[in-house]
Amino acid sequence: MNHSQYRLARNLLFRLDAEKAHHVSLDNLRRLDKLGVLKLLSSKTPQSQPVDCMGLTFPNCVGLAAGLDKEGNCIDALGKLGFGSVEIGTITPRPQAGNPQPRLFRIIDKEAIINRMGFNNPGIETGVANVASSHSFRKQGGIVGFNIGKNKDTPNENAVDDYLICLRGAWDVADYITVNLSSPNTPGLRDLQAADETARLIEALKQEQEKLTQSSGRYVPIALKVAPDLEPQHIADLSQVFIDGGLDGLIATNTTISRSEVAGHRHADEAGGLSGAPLTSRSTEVISAFYSHLGDQIPIIGVGGIMTAEDAQQKLQAGAKIIQLYTGFIYNGPPLVDDILKA
């Protein structure tokens, strides 16, 4: 599939409500994969440009961010589009319907999306079963990340219990596990990014990680995903917490609550997290700031507003080891993956 072919498909999809288009796209990807057609339209295997990160060997540096395959039932199909890694979720202990619809909005002329999905997902048991049923992507060397969160009705003082439930559940099927503290769509969740709260959470997770490693005989790295809306001192404080706590990886960044780049546009005042081109520069700045404190001690996965191959290169130059796509993939499709890898 080339750029013009994808633009034609996108124009048709963008006539639909954003969330409906999302489900139609994933449903069709699964159908095309089962029919064997998908491999004729896209990269047959992830292009081999190996990158070592978090003790894992990624086939290439381009991953799919969490949020697209929320249920983990489209890994093999998405893997055929050239990604070296696919991160599923966010998954919570119990099934969760998420926020009322509409909850997903396009700002097309800004190549942006606002979402307030609210961790809609089938729960840890179904999420694990879905990931376990995927086979072809991993056989090709693809890496599967498992993004975990707390249920909306779990108070912050009990959040660690939810994360531990999900950590234990995902352990056997995940190549790495991401702890999501930075979605703006679960009330109070970002409060867990306070340095002392984060330190306590990491300590509990690392203790459980050690137990699970001993009992299973395999080590699963733990990454943490942060928001772009952090002040310099907060970044410095968190960096020290990550180093002291022995965090395996950092994903920077999630969506932003800022609207400075889309002020006055339709949907700009909708609640939720903003992603896409308006986030490009800020995300890169946050990556650079974290890298200035972390260096190569803790690898950074860069995500946020990667719309072109140049955007991806800037993330890598800022200190990211690998990168992830989400909104850029929606606006530019599988050709973006090829563009980045060629660059």
Notes on the protein architecture:
The protein has 13 helices and 13 strands. The protein is an alpha/beta fold and 343 residues long. It has one domain: Aldolase class I (TIM Barrel, Alpha-Beta Barrel). It has an eight-stranded parallel β-barrel with strand order 3-4-7-8-9-10-12-13, surrounded by six helices. Helix 10 runs parallel beside helix 11 (309-318) and helix 11 packs across helix 13 (334-342). The longest helix is centred in the middle third of the chain and has 22 residues, at 195-216. The radius of gyration is 18 Å and the shape is globular. The two termini are 18 Å apart.
Low-confidence parts = none
When the domains are counted, the total is: 1
Based on the structure, what is the oligomeric state of the protein chains?
Answer: single chain
CATH class bucket: Alpha Beta
Q: Count of DSSP E strands?
A: 13
Mean pLDDT figure: 96
Keywords:
single chain; 13 strands; alpha/beta; about 350 residues; 8-stranded parallel β-barrel; 3-stranded antiparallel beta sheet; TIM Barrel
Chain-wise SSE layout:
Elements: H1 3-13, H2 18-35, H3 38-41, E1 51-53, E2 56-58, E3 62-64, H4 75-79, E4 85-91, E5 104-107, E6 112-115, H5 124-132, H6 136-139, E7 143-148, H7 159-170, E8 176-180, H8 195-216, E9 222-226, H9 232-245, E10 249-252, E11 273-276, H10 280-294, E12 300-303, H11 309-318, E13 320-325, H12 327-332, H13 334-342
Parallel strand pairs: 3-4, 3-13, 4-7, 7-8, 8-9, 9-10, 10-12, 12-13
Antiparallel strand pairs: 1-2, 5-6, 6-11
